[in-house]
């Protein structure tokens, strides 16, 4: 128990708690055996339950298995900068003949992406996250990177993006993470990003369309479109179209579009029930920041649903996700009224760590 606590992995199952003088060990091929220091003997069966066990899953994020000069295996925790000869996966052992669980694992609002991704190895997977230098975009990118994925932070501000990369590398020096320029308010930038990504000749297994603008004053982009609409929807729409062939060639792949429950509080049809294009990119006189945001989020969902219908037969799924009610992040920074509202609501909201886009972890 003391060794497990040292590894940060307490065993809370009292049935499996070892009697005095017993120690739990593992073989190189993942089987658990038990040593009795008093009687100087070892055995495969647990001294209390009589069960045989083996290690389940991969090492937790940040851990690495190495061998010392005497040929003995030890484990390095790069995040907390410590070593131990105890396999940290001992907290996640399974019976030799496991029975099928009777209930499905459940997650709640406090569950973090790191907990959901526990034991999953994304080595060899390529993930792109837009708007990943802060907020849930950063937490999503970090979670994937710490589980072995090659993560690309697609951001407008490269200074902040490079700082985010450094923060991830600070947690695990072997993380494969990089930043690339992507300004969704400029369609030429979206095109350049797609061209630069394709030039890498890598696959694309997960594309998280996370970047968004909220409560912006009315303005037009250089492409002549209302900024909220272009940043939140059209820029991502264009990005997916440009990378669609890469996604299909990388199947199974997934697109995750971050939407919002606020999509319910708007409409983009006119009185006759037909799509009103003037509502998507309104003039200054018809503009209201909250309504523009809601409409862009509705476009996200419609786009994600249609994308899934078209590409799922080719092995590419698409999911629209709601990150959480009044989730506290920096998205409200454009107007002091929203900043005050979000600050007052903060004690009742999800954290960015628990809000991290766990749906994308099941790709």
From TrEMBL:
Keyword Mitochondrion tagged: yes
Protein keywords: Apoptosis, Cytoplasm, Golgi apparatus, Lysosome, Mitochondrion, NADP, Oxidoreductase, Phosphoprotein, Repeat, Wnt signaling pathway
Subcellular location: Cytoplasm; Golgi apparatus; Lysosome; Mitochondrion
Pfam family membership, one: WW
InterPro entries in UniProt: NAD(P)-bd_dom_sf, SDR_fam, WW_dom, WW_dom_sf
GO biological process: apoptotic process; cellular response to transforming growth factor beta stimulus; regulation of signal transduction; Wnt signaling pathway
CDD domains assigned: WW
Stretches for region Disordered: 1-21
Subunit structure, interactors included: Interacts with TP53, p73/TP73 and MAPK8. Interacts with MAPT/TAU, RUNX2 and HYAL2. Forms a ternary complex with TP53 and MDM2. Interacts with ERBB4, LITAF and WBP1. Interacts with DVL1, DVL2 and DVL3. May interact with FAM189B and SCOTIN. Interacts with TNK2. Interacts with TMEM207. Interacts (via WW domain) with VOPP1.
The name this protein goes by in its record: WW domain-containing oxidoreductase
Name of the gene this protein is made from: WWOX
């Amino acid at each position: 128990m003391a060794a497990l606590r040292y590894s940060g992995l307490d065993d809370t199952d009292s049935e499996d708690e070892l009697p005095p003088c017993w120690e739990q060990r593992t073989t190189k091929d993942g089987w658990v055996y038990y040593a009795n220091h008093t009687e100087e003997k070892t055995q495969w069966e647990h001294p209390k339950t009589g069960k045989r066990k083996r290690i389940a899953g991969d090492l937790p994020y940040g851990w690495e298995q190495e061998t010392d000069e005497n040929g003995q295996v030890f484990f390095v925790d790069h995040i907390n900068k410590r070593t131990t000869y105890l396999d940290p996966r001992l907290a996640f052992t399974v019976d030799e003949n496991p029975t099928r669980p009777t209930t499905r694992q459940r997650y709640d609002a406090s569950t973090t992406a790191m907990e959901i991704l526990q034991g999953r190895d994304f080595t060899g997977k390529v993930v792109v996250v837009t708007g990943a230098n802060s907020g849930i975009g950063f937490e999503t990118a970090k979670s994937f990177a710490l589980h072995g994925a090659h993560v690309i932070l697609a951001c407008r501000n490269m200074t902040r993006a490079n700082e985010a990369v450094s923060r991830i590398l600070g947690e695990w020096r072997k993380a494969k993470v990089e930043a690339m320029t992507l300004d969704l308010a400029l369609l030429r930038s979206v095109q350049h990003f797609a061209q630069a990504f394709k030039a890498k000749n890598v696959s694309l297994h997960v594309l998280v369309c996370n970047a968004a603008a909220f409560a912006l004053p009315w303005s037009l982009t250089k492409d002549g479109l209302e900024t909220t609409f272009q940043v939140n929807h059209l820029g991502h729409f264009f990005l997916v179209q440009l990378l669609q062939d890469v996604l299909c060639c990388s199947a199974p792949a997934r697109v995750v579009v971050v939407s919002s429950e606020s999509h319910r509080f708007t409409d983009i049809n006119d009185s006759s029930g037909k799509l009103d294009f003037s509502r998507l990119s309104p003039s200054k006189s018809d503009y209201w920041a909250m309504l523009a945001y809601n409409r862009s989020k509705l476009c996200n969902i419609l786009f994600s649903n249609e994308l899934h219908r078209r590409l799922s037969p080719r092995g590419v799924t698409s999911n629209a996700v709601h990150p959480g009610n009044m989730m506290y992040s920096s998205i409200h920074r454009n107007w002091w009224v929203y900043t005050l509202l979000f600050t007052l609501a903060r004690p009742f909201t999800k954290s960015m760590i628990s809000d991290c886009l766990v749906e994308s972890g099941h790709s």
